[in-house]
């Protein structure tokens, strides 16, 4: 059978990895797909870079162009791989490829998290596939697991470390006792963080990814605008140290849960018990925990970024599309696991309605009655205390200090209620600095 022809948009890190892995493992891939898969056109504004990626010999017969629309217009191209990134031109090119009857493979989580509803609807109407395994957690096959492997389950919740940059920073802060700014500079030097790391450190990248996973897990539309997103820029070294003393580690988690009131969709730093596998995911690695009613808790772990790990996911999508290329569109796996006419209208809860437990750190005056006043206000609000840790004033401010840190772990409470009581606590004259609040996830 004639090889399926593929056009590649973008010859950067992932694009080059995709070309190389496909060339290196082409015979194994052909045995699995049932026919050959060949990249026959590559589009990149930097045509010299594209030619260097293709190389001599392996690139014979591969046409390099600067204009991506030449690939879309080519009737011989069956699949378009979009690795340009961003929301702008990538959206337009993907929609044009769909309109031209091309299947699309993309690693663009930002595009799908924001415009996924439009893109999936266009693909469904045209009878083509949009595959996006590489958009979440690099080489970890979490999309396939959620969409196919766990299809018998009513998924209850999932939580993931899905941004390697922030996980590297938090691991270094914990291991070396350094502050955020120092470790960020080191992460940039080592290439783990971009020159502009905003999407990573502010939680936006993780928000894109958990939005896609939530849609697949619960059969709801892609709704990035309703996700609650916090990054790690405000985390202090002492909170990481105190968490460790209490038996926890701080991780930036993407979390989505099914509740009686609706779907939780949130990204924020979380205290995770040190004994949990997720707490022990270090460096730039990714991991996702999924809890289904039938299977229980499952863990997916691996490299969340990089040239060849992400290429692994891109090529897996190419193989899936190649296998199903001639199949009736009605019998393919739906983009978001559930058939479009069976999507749920479950609402995404505002953060004020989320129920979880908390770590609170208060810098207070070291005097009698402070602890009683604080715990009294919490009790009045109906917030139950799990543990209290009060540091010696000398440990916090040095010899003769008149300030101390009061650390409180709560039981589950409604976020809106916690917001109200924190405002009351902050107004106390004995509370000397802004209160630190970090959510706590037992993941049991």
General description of the model:
The model has no long low-confidence stretch (mean pLDDT 94). The strands form two sheets. Strands 7, 8, 9, 10, 11, 12, 13, 14, 15, 16 and 17 form an eleven-stranded mixed sheet that branches. β4 (79-82), α5 (89-99) and β5 (103-106) form a beta-alpha-beta unit. The relative contact order is 0.12. The radius of gyration is 24 Å and the shape is elongated. α5 (89-99) packs parallel to α6 (109-126) and α8 (164-176) packs across α9 (180-190). The protein has helices spanning 13-24, 26-33, 47-54, 68-73, 89-99, 109-126, 142-149, 164-176, 180-190, 198-201, 204-218, 237-245, 307-324, 370-380, 393-397, 415-426, and strands at 4-9, 37-43, 63-65, 79-82, 103-106, 130-131, 155-161, 228-229, 248-258, 263-273, 285-292, 296-303, 355-365, 385-390, 403-410, 413-414, 436-440. With 444 residues, it is α/β, with parallel strands linked by helices. The protein folds into three domains: 4-140 and 307-342, Rossmann fold, CATH 3.40.50; 142-303, Dihydrodipicolinate Reductase, domain 2, CATH 3.30.360; 354-439, ACT domain (Alpha-Beta Plaits), CATH 3.30.70.
